[in-house]
Design a protein that fits this description.
With about 220 residues, the chain is α+β, with helices and mostly antiparallel strands. It has six helices and six strands. A four-stranded antiparallel beta sheet has the order 4-5-3-6, sandwiched between helices. A two-stranded antiparallel sheet has the order 1-2.
């Protein structure tokens, strides 16, 4: 019997037929050639990357799996408690690839850090992208994650996203489809596309509002 990874299914509750609800596994919708925004968060929001070596291990795994399953990755960001990918999937789909990626990385992480608990909480989440505008916004959201989280002053300051490669500041990782990503900006040459990419991303930056402190008088 073929072994099916648990990440291949999403659990759905159906109306009760007796006194108990019956959990039923519902396959994810996977359409070859479609774009998806995907990611996974650590169990109870725990760190899934404790240092840069962890991130390097993850990227090496991602490079191999993306090639094997025909993923065209146009944006990524490795945070501390989670990661984001924006990609177009191939005929092989994404479920089995994510089973290999998350399962393999969790085993490496636990071995390296002497852990035994589950690294990831829920199964990976995914959202199909159905318009070019949503695709571009998903890319911008992904590379701005470190800035919005307050761990980087600008997207260029965060080494572990696709921003620097798309902006021409660094070499791309093997699985980043740089030509595809820049081609979304419809410019005649790569320099103009990089400028358009940078302008688009920075247009999404919203100044952080100062925190207001509320003073409460305590009766003594």
């Amino acid at each position: 019997m073929e072994k099916v990874c648990e990440h291949h299914f999403r659990t759905q509750r159906l109306p009760a037929t007796d006194t108990h609800d019956v959990p039923v596994n519902k396959p994810r919708i996977e359409i070859a050639g479609a774009y998806y925004h995907l990611g996974t968060r650590g169990n109870n929001r725990c760190d899934i990357f404790e240092d840069d070596d962890d991130r390097l291990v993850f990227i090496l795994m991602l490079n191999g799996i993306a090639d094997r399953y025909g993923w065209s990755i146009v944006a990524y960001c490795l945070m501390t408690t989670h990661y984001h990918l924006v990609m177009r999937i191939g005929e092989a789909g994404m479920a089995r690839g994510f089973c290999e990626l998350n399962g393999g990385y969790a085993r490496e992480f636990n071995a390296r850090h002497g852990r035994r608990n589950h690294l990831f909480g829920r199964r990976y989440w995914d959202g199909m992208i159905e318009s070019e505008g949503y695709l571009l916004e998903s890319i911008r959201y992904t590379v701005l994650n470190p800035v919005r989280a307050g761990i980087a002053g600008s997207p260029a300051d965060w080494r572990w996203s696709s921003y620097r490669a798309c902006a021409g500041l660094d070499h791309p990782i093997a699985c980043l489809d740089l030509e595809h990503a820049l081609g979304l900006f419809n410019r005649p040459h790569v320099v103009a596309a990089r400028h358009a990419f940078r302008r688009f991303v920075h247009a999404g930056l919203v100044p952080r509002q100062p925190t207001k402190t509320k003073w409460v008088e305590i009766a003594t």
